[in-house]
Amino acid sequence: MLTLICRHFLARSSYYYALTAIALLVMMPTFSFVPEGEHLEQIRQRDFITLHTRNTPTTYYEGRHGPTGFEYELMRRFADRLGVSLNIDASHHPESVLPAVREKGDLGAAALPLLTDTPGIHYTRPIINMQPLVVYRRGLNGITEPSDLVGLSLGTLSGAGTSKALRELQEDYPELSWRESHELEVAELLAQIEDGRFDAAVIFEHQFRINRLFFKNVEHGFPLGDPVSMAWAVPSGRGLGLLKAANRFLEDLQQTGALDQLVARYFGHDDYLEYVGTRTFLTHLDARLPRFTEDFKQAAENTGFDWKLLAAIGYQESHWDPEAVSPTGVRGLMMLTRPTAKEMDIENRRDPAQSIDGGSRYLRSIMDRLPSDITGDDRLFMAMAAYNVGLGHLYDARKIAEMRDGDPDSWADVREALPLLQQREWHSKTRHGYARGGEPVIYVRNIRRYYEMIEYVERSRQQFFQLEQTPVNADPLLMFELIPPLD
């Protein structure tokens, strides 16, 4: 599924790649008195490259293991290619990136639209295409086509590239108007749709795919206009060495398939959870999780896990219901079997604190029993899979992975092998036989997604909802420039 999403995301607009490639040729100067490699040589001499970007889920943010994000990952690899370190300025809004690149920076990577008329800037080859998308507040009916936007309170981000589609639409519907923010980010704009300050907005599809999980009252509308190309920006007038190096790097990523893999990793997992289930999760996040947060944190302190990961496992097991009981007698918030509870010295499986403590220590015991060659996230994901399907079946799947010339220490290869435990051809060759091997794959996948949502919501409550602290007498719309109807 991820591969299909990725191919669709990249390949559907090869036409626009051709157009933008032509535009790049037009933009290239035919001669320059500046040595071609001057800028690139300066970067190498100082041993770092400065990246101007935005602090958003689709560009750059601090994740579980440190800095992450789609464009951060690209830039990190590019810096490695150049043999320099990466210096990041993530304080920008889309409109402030290009001035910073022109005046003092080396490169801008902030979901920038490739434009052909930007003074002082050269753009790299296209990286991915970004489809403008109309989103709207749940409860507004019939938002299915461009004419439905007339008369709505409509917002977008200034300088992000989405205004182009609105201006083109305004030529057909002169009465259309909207507001453009010079300060906010996508999540804040979606929050304003939820609280009624806007009826709808135009953002990019991949941005909504990442953020929709946290705004359950914002609906997917319809694509608006043509896709625009995302590109990096470098300053002109300082030689073309950096631009050429970046283009070679991006071309290599595209040809080797590494770019497809990154797109799938960051933007291709929106269908992991059915959307209604996601809204239920967010409801439970507010209504149920606070009762058990301290228990999860205490268990995390005792076992060394991230408390949000333990909470994600608890949700996958029982939806944070301490009274949950399965048809087979597994019960409690962490759904412990009777033998597991006994092994972990748990007397009352329905006591949430005991259940969380027992489940967390049981996960740690599985982790500790795995072979030492399994490391990092591979070790964690296999431990979670064994929590679901049993350690014996996990070892069987590792054996199948090896029989298929895969790496038994790699979760990616074991994940492919686990569903084969449902096929006689394969489980007949294992020690423990048949298992519903597809379930632990979904189990781990869901927990990772629940974890991402819990982590993101915890981080976002302050970062993306600052508008709630706006003084009562202040007008939030002062952050927007009104784009009026055409005369």
Outline the structure in words.
This protein is an alpha/beta fold. The chain has three domains: 2-129 and 228-269, D-Maltodextrin-Binding Protein, domain 2, CATH 3.40.190; 132-226 and 477-483, D-Maltodextrin-Binding Protein, domain 2 (3-Layer(aba) Sandwich); 278-446, Orthogonal Bundle (Lysozyme), CATH 1.10.530. Helices cover 48% and strands 13% of the residues. Strands 1, 4, 5, 6, 7 and 13 form a six-stranded mixed β-sheet that branches. A six-stranded mixed β-sheet has the order 12-8-11-9-10-14, with helices on both faces. A hairpin with a 2-residue loop joins strand 2 (61-63) and strand 3. Helix 12 runs parallel beside helix 15 and helix 16 crosses helix 17 (391-403).
Percent range for helical residues? Answer: 40-55%
* CATH hierarchy class name of the largest domain: Alpha Beta
Low-confidence stretches: 1-34, 270-276, 464-468
Count of helical regions:
20
Strand content: 5-15%
Rg result = 25 Å
Number of domains: 3
Taking the sheet with the most strands, its summary is: 6 strands, mixed
Compose a concise summary of this entry.
GO terms for molecular function: peptidoglycan lytic transglycosylase activity. With 487 residues, this protein is an alpha/beta fold. The chain has helices spanning 2-11, 14-27, 38-46, 70-82, 94-103, 163-172, 186-194, 205-211, 241-256, 258-267, 275-287, 289-303, 307-318, 338-343, 352-369, 376-389, 391-403, 411-417, 424-427, 438-463; strands spanning 48-52, 61-63, 66-68, 85-89, 107-113, 121-123, 129-130, 132-137, 154-157, 178-181, 200-204, 218-223, 228-235, 480-483.
